[in-house]
Amino acid sequence: MEAAAAPNRLDSIGNGNEGDTVLEELSVVGTGVPTETATSSVVGYRATRSATATRTDTPVRDSPQTINVVPREVLTDQQDLRLSDAINNVSNVQLGSTVQGRSQNYVIRGFSTQVFAVDGILTNPAFQFYPVERDLANAERVEVIKGPASVLFGRGDPGGVVNIVTRRPTLEPSGDMSVIGGGFGLRRVQGSVSSALLGSDTLAGRISFAAQEDPTFRNIGDNTNRRFFVAPALSWTPSSDTRVYLNSEFTQQRTQYDEGLIAYRGRVPLDNVSRYYGEPFSRYYGEFNSITLRAEHDVNENLTLRQVINGQWGAFNLFTARATGVNAAGTLVTRRDASVDSRYAAVDTQTEAVLKFDTFGFAHTALLGFEYSNGYRHPYSQQGNLGSVSFLTPVFGSIPGALGFQADLKQKLELFGLYVQDQIQLAPGLQLVLGARFDLGTQLYSNRVPTTRTAAPEQDLFGASPRVGLIYRPFEPLTFYASYATSFVPQTASVLNVVNPPPETGEQVEVGTRLDLLPNLTLSGAVFRIVRDNVAATDPTNSNFSVITGQQRSQGFEADLAGEILPGWNVIASVGFLDARITKDTTFAVGNVLAAAPTFSGSVWSTYAFQEGWLRGLGLGAGITYVGRRYGDLNNSYTVGAYARVDALVYYDFDERWRLSINLRNLTDARYIEAPTNQFNNTPGAPFSVLAAVRVKL
Fold first, then answer.
1. What is the gyration radius of the CA atoms in the chain, in angstroms?
2. Which residues contact 497 (CB under 8 A, 6 or more apart)?
């Protein structure tokens, strides 16, 4: 084996070819290990390259903001079936809401985020939430960039962006398939198969799929939650300098509408985590479809052109029982029945050029891009009367009342974004990253309710999002960085009697470090301060609307560890301290803690695979996730307690193809609230369960 400093350019996404020197990179020659790129699979628990923070294939250590990567091997070992399971491995990131059992929102560095990205494309700009639970069958890695990322993503929440990198097709035949069964009746089959097509050496295809039935531990009658997911993908490489990638995803979901547990007198009772205040007829159907075409061409070794086109469309509908209040004695829960029928669609295009050049002895990798996005949503809702149920012993059987008109909302958001970024090598070990983005567009908003119709005139939008980062590597294992970044988000919330709510903005200052403790083990840490203005939150007097709350601030510290300690011994761990509060407001008390933001949280997951002897093939794993006490709303009217969940893993590899694994979740059978959202929406964590899987590599 020979180790050498191999000079590499910052390659464009998906391009692992070497060019002239821009940033130094340590490469290992002759090991037989595939070269990692920003979109390739990761060997072990530590990723070394990413494109999420820069849109160029850049070493993680050379990113100007914190970026955490959860590779597929972690997803497989933990049997992560939800995106929220994956992000539990990342510091200062928690599940914020399940959106009544329909999807997931997250709290990143104290701030709630309702959207995420797939291969760098954000979901519909008019969304209030992703309409289905995101499946991970085609996920190569889950990446989280911390802090504002509007310079590249445009609209985005100041806490950060979750980006899913999909599994690319391969010319060499490969594949895997798993059959999974577990507690509470969970049944799932998933797989992914890839190969060259039609005997071609330039065209490859992959299809990833999953089908799942999950009755859950919740007392929702005889209903079963079902999800079907399929993701066909194609890649075409007609020449060494041209790459085309087509990825499509189709999801259908039928689930019970489940608001979870109800808070009363400052707490959420946990004596019965299966308690359900809905009815067996409370059902939800959602579908989400997406197609993305990405084409790249290297004009020469110094210029790469890229075009991305994405289309999204789908629908959801529901008919459900919803809680509306608790009587003073805490004995009855008042309810109503409700229905919603919603349609949505969006298109997004990105046109980019990556240019490499030298000026005055400085090496540059410049990115120039233009993005156009256009999305709309149209939910139509009705409601009626429904009988109350007992707070402690709810019983099914209420007959839904006749539905009457509630609201008819139509929203369209169109944005044009121009962005530029320059990664500059100032000196050996010293880099400067400069970026700026300018977004302008229009928003149309119309909301008809029983007593009035709010029809806003066309609203003009504008946002400027600068970013600057400095990266210093005094010697090879150690990196320091400092950055300033901003965000811009058009309001998509419904604000009562406000036709043009102001856009939300955010800014962050961050200082961090990355240290390679061992050849394959990296420790990263950061301190940060984020200020968020013009924030939308649920109106405390009318849950159908939002209020613009003013200003919020989050500051704290975090650290993450990922990689291999010894051969066969992997670890991924995190710890976070957070102080997230309201700093200016006319509705909520200044000083209140932000909802679902714990002061302290952390996790550690570690596995060991025996390398030799009669135990070879056996693997063991264990982990603990801790989340501190959290407030459930901005009023700080109730809290949910801290919890520690302990998980374990035992697996056996019979050979290179077959694996039997058993995951034990919540070994101590802890009772806890996983996601507090508001008084009537608090998702309890699952009790102790066993998850068994048989996996075969094809």
1. 25
2. 454
- How does DSSP assign 545-565, residue by residue? EEEE--EEEEEEEEEEEEEEE
Residues 6+ positions from 451 with CB-CB distance below 8 Å? none
Burial of 621 (0-12, 13-18, 19+ CB in 10 A): buried
Residues contacting 360, CB < 8 A, separation 6+: none
Nearest to 468 by CA among 486, 446, 452, 483: 483
pLDDT digits (tens, 9 = 90+) for 494-552: 677 666 677 889 999 999 999 999 999 999 999 999 999 987 777 777 766 778 878 99
Contact 584, 532 (CB under 8 A): no
User: In whole angstroms, what is the distance from residue 51 CA to residue 303 CA?
Assistant: 17
Distance (Å, whole) CA 466 – CA 509: 12
Range of the domain at 282: 2-697
Could you identify the residue written with the tokens 């709810």?
A: 394
End-to-end CA distance of the chain: 30
Q: What mean pLDDT is predicted for residues 595-622?
A: 97
Q: Look up tokens 């070990």; give the residue.
A: 429
Report the distance separating Cα 151 and Cα 16, nearest Å. 24
Whose CA is closest to 507, among 545, 547, 546, 552?
A: 552
The 3-class SS string of 192-240 reads: EEEEECCCCCCEEEEEEEEEEEECCCCCCCCCCEEEEEEEEEEEEEEEC
SS3 percent helix, strand, coil of the chain, rounded to 5, is 5, 60, 35
CATH number at residue 184: 2.40.170.20
Instruction: Provide the number of structural domains found in the chain.
Output: 1
Nearest to 217 by CA among 256, 267, 265: 256
Q: CA 451 to CA 458: how far, in whole Å?
A: 22
Task: Dump the DSSP string for 593-650.
Answer: BPTT--SEEEEEEEEEE--SGGGTTEEEEEEEEEE--EESSTT---EE--EEEEEEEE
Instruction: Single out the residue of 4, 183, 161 nearest to residue 67, CA to CA.
Output: 161
Nearest to 312 by CA among 115, 122, 439, 162: 122
Q: Which amino acid is at 518?
A: L
What residue type is 103 in one-letter code?
S
* 234 and 243 Cβ atoms separated by less than 8 Å: no
Do the beta carbons of residue 316 and residue 285 sit within 8 Å?
yes
What per-residue string of b and e applies to 470-495 under the rule 16 or more CB within 10 Å gives b?
A: bbbbeeeeebebebbbbbbbbbbbbb
- pTM of this structure: 0.91
Which helix or strand (DSSP H or E) is residue 86 part of? helix 83-87
CB atoms within 10 A of CB 34: 10
Give the model confidence (pLDDT) of 24-53 as tens digits: 333 343 444 568 999 999 999 999 999 999
Q: Which residues pair with 415 in a beta bridge?
A: 373, 441
Neighbouring CB atoms inside 10 A of 100's CB total 23
